[in-house]
Amino acid sequence: MALEILTEKDNISSDCGTIIYKDNTGAYDVTTNPTGYGAPNATRASLYLKFFLTLKTTSGDEQITVPAYNANSVTQWSIPLTQDGYYEAYVFGTLVYAGGTTYALGSVIYHVGTNEFYKSLTAGNLGNAVTDVAFWAPVTEVDELKAAIAATQPNAYADVYEHIELCNSRVCKTKAYLKEENCECTPGASKYNKIRNLIDGADINGSIAAYARAQAIVEEIQGQCNCIDQD
Question: Is residue 120 part of a domain?
Fold first, then answer.
């Protein structure tokens, strides 16, 4: 079996401000992990990984800034977050640029000297420096990497991990509960009950991969939380 990169959420900080994703591909084992790193599959040391994180809101995608990392050896990515929602983590792995290799249009490679990933702008791209803008362009968008995978580029691998993040929403629920402890509220109309029910709905939709619906619920939760912060 061929290598299959496996990336998952590892944890999120207690203040909901930093999320960690981890490379869980593991080492090759003919019985327990035939899709892991190592012969006969590609080794981790030979692959250079690029990580993208996208928040997929109802109004459009928002690409999250990923801090710089060592593409040749990274095993986890620690990324600052400011809000809950539907996140898509996309990891792309490919080999280092080789001057003697001919690259097809759209092929993506990594260059050690510049520590950047590049996309070939021409077919039959042979022996051209990655700094030559007539032949290469830095990779800045997830879709450019997905296109390379769709074209079955040799020695290119990818993984998509989707999830609903609700850490801030749960903090908001606690705030609502504490505020309502000391006031006279109608239980059925309390913000706490509404937020609690919305969180349950987002969790359920996330568990069945109905991510767009879950994101819409998260945005409703955020509206409720904004009201609480202003109270």
Answer: yes
Contacts of 219 (CB under 8 A, 6+ apart): 57, 58, 85
Query: Which range, of 69-78, 183-192, 210-219, averages the lowest pLDDT?
Result: 183-192
Q: Give the pTM.
A: 0.90
Are residues 17 and 89 part of one domain? yes
Kindly list the distances between the CA atom of residue 16 and the CA atoms of 85, 104, 109, 139, in Å, as whole numbers in the listed order.
12, 43, 34, 29
End position of a domain, from candidates 145, 163, 181: 163
As a whole number, mean pLDDT of residues 190-216 equals 95
Residue 218 and residue 231: Cα distance in Å, rounded? Answer: 20
DSSP structure string for 190-208: -HHHHHHHHHHHHHHHHHT
Domain that holds residue 180: 167-230
Bridge partners (DSSP) listed for residue 93: 49, 157
Asked whether residue 181 falls in the same domain as residue 143, the answer is no
The mean per-residue pLDDT over the stretch 103-131 comes to: 94
The pLDDT assigned to 231 comes to 59
Listed residues 163, 196, 215: the one ending a domain: 163
What's the number of domains the chain is made of?
2
* Cα separation values, 55 from 20, 130, 210, 211, Å: 15, 30, 15, 11
Amino acid at the residue 9: K
